[in-house]
Design a protein that fits this description.
The chain is mainly α. It has one domain: Hyaluronidase domain-like, CATH 1.10.3450. The chain is built from six helices and no strands. Helix 2 packs antiparallel against helix 3. The longest helix is centred in the middle third of the chain and has 19 residues. It is globular, with a radius of gyration of 13 Å. About 35% of the residues are buried.
């Protein structure tokens, strides 16, 4: 995977989260995640956590049956890997911004989390 592919995907992910387009954010980052996963890249788990973070809020947005339960279950991958964001990783600032967006969304849905 090209370094710019992940960078562009993170930028688009953040933009889509800001627009409350959680499913689309999940999709754009998932496309960038597949090559990372296949290559055993050290950031693959963090990216997967962000993917799950976005889809968590799609469950809440759609307000389907058991949405809160599904959201709590799905966000666990994000919670498990968010601590791996430190300034020595590639695209540190983008990862920090993406995690910040997820944290803001968790505050918005504080009754669930």
């Amino acid at each position: 995977m090209e370094n710019n592919d992940l960078q562009n995907a993170l930028q688009e992910y953040i933009k889509l989260l800001k627009e409350s387009s959680y499913f689309e954010a999940h999709e754009v980052l998932e496309e960038a995640w597949h090559p990372l996963r296949k290559a055993g890249h050290p950031l693959k788990d963090l990216v997967k956590g962000l993917i799950n973070g976005a889809i968590c809020f799609e469950h809440l947005k759609r307000n389907r049956k058991n949405a809160a339960l599904k959201a709590k279950k799905v966000i666990t991958a994000y919670e498990r890997h968010k601590a791996t964001v430190f300034c020595e990783i590639e695209h540190c600032e983008l990862f920090q911004e993406a995690c910040g967006m997820i944290e803001k969304l968790k505050t918005r849905y504080q009754e669930v989390f």
